[in-house]
Design brief:
The chain is α/β, with parallel strands linked by helices and about 180 residues long. It has helices at about 5-10, 30-35, 35-50, 65-75, 130-140, and strands at about 15, 25, 55-60, 80-85, 90-100, 100-110, 120-125, 145-155, 170-175. It has a single domain, classed as Rossmann fold (3-Layer(aba) Sandwich). The protein contains five helices and nine strands, in the order αββααβαββββαββ. Helix 3 (about 35-50) packs across helix 4.
Length: about 180
C-alpha cells in the first residue's frame, strides 16, 4: 500500500462534486505550483525506484507528463508520452480500455519502446486502474518490461492496484 506522506495531502486541493455530484476531485495544481513540494514529489518518486534499472519512463496524458518527465531526467532515462487517440503524429500502437462510463483509447509511438527495455510508468492518480493497465498492455505489446508503476496519490477505495497484476506499485499517499 502507499506510504502515508501527509506533506503530499497538504498540497492537494479537494474539490467536492467535480466532475459530477458525489465525486471529490483531487487537484494537484497547488503541489505543482509549490517548487519545494513539486521537487520533493519528483525526488520521492525517484527514490521509490532507485533500486531498479529504468530505460524509459512513460507518462500518461496529461498530468502524468508533468511528473514523468522530471522523473525520467533524474533517472537518466528516456521519456515516452502515452496519449489519447489521435494526438500522436506517427505510427502508433493503440489500446482500447473500459471506463466507468464507456470506453477510451490510448496510443504510443511504435518505436518509443524497444523489446527488453525496462519501463517505469508514472501518473498523478491511481483510481480504478483502467488507464494504467491499458498503458501497461501497450508497453508489453511493444516488448517492454514494466519495472513498476509510480503515482503521486492513490484512491485506495477504488482498488485500481488490483488491475495492475503483480507489478510493483508505489504511491506517495493514499486516500
Amino acid at each position: 500500500m502507499a506510504a502515508n506522506a501527509t506533506w503530499v495531502r497538504d498540497h492537494i486541493r479537494p474539490i467536492a462534486d467535480y466532475p459530477k455530484p458525489g465525486i471529490t476531485f483531487r487537484d494537484i495544481t497547488p503541489l505543482l505550483g509549490n517548487a519545494a513540494a513539486f521537487g520533493r514529489a519528483v525526488d520521492d518518486l525517484v527514490t521509490r525506484f532507485h533500486d531498479v534499472a529504468v530505460d524509459r519512463v512513460v507518462g500518461i496524458e496529461s498530468r502524468g507528463f508533468i511528473l514523468a518527465a522530471p522523473v525520467a531526467y533524474r533517472l537518466r532515462s528516456g521519456f515516452v508520452p502515452v496519449r489519447k487517440a489521435g494526438k500522436l503524429p506517427w505510427a502508433v500502437a493503440r489500446e482500447e480500455y473500459e471506463l466507468e462510463y464507456g470506453t477510451d483509447k490510448l496510443e504510443i509511438h511504435r518505436d518509443a519502446i524497444h523489446p527488453g527495455e525496462r519501463v517505469l510508468v508514472v501518473d498523478d492518480v491511481l483510481a480504478t486502474g483502467g488507464t494504467a493497465a491499458a498503458t501497461g498492455r501497450l508497453i508489453e505489446t511493444l516488448g517492454g518490461v514494466i519495472v513498476g508503476f509510480g503515482f503521486l496519490l492513490e484512491l485506495a477505495d477504488l482498488d485500481g492496484r488490483s488491475r495492475l497484476g503483480e507489478h510493483r506499485v508505489e504511491s506517495l499517499t493514499a486516500y
